[in-house]
Amino acid sequence: MDDAAKVNLLDLDRDGLERFFADELGEKRFRAHQVMKWIYHRHVCDFAEMSDLGKDLRAKLEARAVVMPPPVILDKPSADGTHKWLLGMDQANAIEAVFIPDKGRGTLCVSSQVGCGLNCQFCSTATQGFNRNLSTAEIIGQVWVAAKHLGNVPHKQRKLTNVVMMGMGEPLLNFDNVVRAMSIMRDDYGFGLANKRVTLSTAGLVPMIDRLSEVSDVSLAVSLHAPNDDLRTELVPLNKKYPIDELLDACVRYAMRKPKTSITFEYTMMQGVNDLPEHARALAKLMRRIDAKVQRANTAKVNLIPFNPFAGTRFERSEETRIRDFQKLLLDAGVLTMVRRTRGDDIDAACGQLKGQVMDKTRRQAEFKRKTHIDSITRIN
Ligand code: SAH
Fold first, then answer.
1. Which residue range is the domain that position 32 belongs to?
2. How far is the CA of 351 from the centre of ligand 1 (A)?
3. pTM surpassing 0.85?
């Protein structure tokens, strides 16, 4: 059997791996746990090195399975400790994952799709178009590459403490693979992260938020970016399908199902677009309405993200003072509000700057180039 026909064990969560051992190999289920520890705690891919497995089992595994993380095409450290990897997904496509160390924690930003189809107007991934969903192996493989690079050992040498599904793509449009990968992230035989330290960020797919609440206990982040439907539809076209009221009601349901959890609302600050005092006041109202419906203070939190520019964009980052004023208005209204520090600027590793290499199937790259060309002509005139 050549490698392509073998099962990549990174595609299976604990359940799947136990079944593979029992049903396919005729082995005891606990063997799956041993193998997971080799893969995720010791970063070993070669069955020959898995010394507590018998010779026969190792031979069976070699015949039927592989452990194949994505190849690292480019490895880019930043001056501020941020680290970006360009990872090969197939012959034509590559995606990016970013590690952001901070006081007492290390966060990995993970991609879920090659490109993205949602076309949020202020996101550089959108300009790349969309190619395909990532497999479970390709998603958990990003964590594996970072963990190996960092020498991360769950429960002992914790370097990687948080994962955010905030890289390229819309994770809720790749539901099963994302949920499976997040289960490996939180499994003690996997990366052993606490539920609340794994965050899924969505542009707001209402039915999928409900589905997520049934199968997973991860933290939820919602990309809001505007406090009214007209503006949000302009920035996040998905809003036409799932307008703000429906989206926030789904968030209320999520929070009611998960006692103690809060929901983070991401709000990218763009000068003169969504950063005026009237926007802050309207946003505060929406956030307070969620807290009232859930009957829990501070269920809704706001994360202000200074806009990160990219070539050809028509938006600008809000001035520092505007961001502070906006934050103060929200805080004064009783809404917990943080401003996200921009990291990895020098390696284009900040939010919304991930590009990778996408074989665009949507023709969005061509459309974006044409539009920015027209924009630049009108600006000159
Ligand atoms: N599709 C998911 C996850 C990917 S984006 C989602 O929409 O949530 C992760 C976050 O970065 C989102 O909140 C997104 O809106 C934000 N973002 C996108 N482009 C940005 C940019 N240029 N500057 C700052 N934040 C951006």
1. 3-66
2. 6
3. yes
